[in-house]
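Q: What would this chain look like folded?
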Amino acid sequence: MSITIKSKTDLEKMRIAGRIAGNACHLAGRALKPGMTTEEIDEIIYEYITEQGAVPSFLGYGGFPNSACISVNEEVIHGIPGSRKLKTGDIVSIDVGAKIHGFHGDTCYTFPVGRISQEAQELLDVTNASLYEAIKKAVVGARLSEVSGAVEQYCASRGYGIVREYCGHGIGRDLHEPPEVPNFIESRNRDIRLEEGMCICIEPMINMKGDAIRLCGNGWTVRTKSGSLSAHFEHAIAITKDGPIILTQPDLPCN
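A: My prediction, written as structure tokens:
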């Protein structure tokens, strides 16, 4: 396993890519409304990324047909945008990647459509909070298992299911680089120490009921086996001597 260490110049470029990805994600999230199709969300993302002079990281990646993965309700990840119309009470995970100056940014946020149930809101709150618990552990000298364990402890202790077949990853010139970043302590993986200049994507994928998932017939979209809701949050993080830096923090002006 070869983990690339990014230079100061590399990180500056990754900040640009990350900002574009973060802004695209949140611009689309602010536009959500009942009756909107997931394809219309994808169009917003494509237009913003390309207007910034970047390219969507996901478009054509492994044959993926769109600019963003848009997963609704029981869909965990890799939802393909199309004619599905959103309804009040839905939750929508918008996973976005952008590449510019040779580097990628990758981020995800799960948004509510109008008023959602208290159960759904609690799932979103816990999943998002677990991401930041993990980020706090991403410091020079820490073990990767401390990052993974933070997600597991926070979510499992509250009764939620943790997706185990998919995980976070390193990021840089490639969208997916070593190391894998599970959302639970995985003893089979070498438990590396984090070093200055490493960049990783931490992305809790948390189910309301149970860990089990299933792959849909399109070969991409993953759903909860129970049919329960799933939430997905992600940031790209740089490991620095001054602590973790979120590379994908959006900086769009507030409405």
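The chain has a mean pLDDT of 96.
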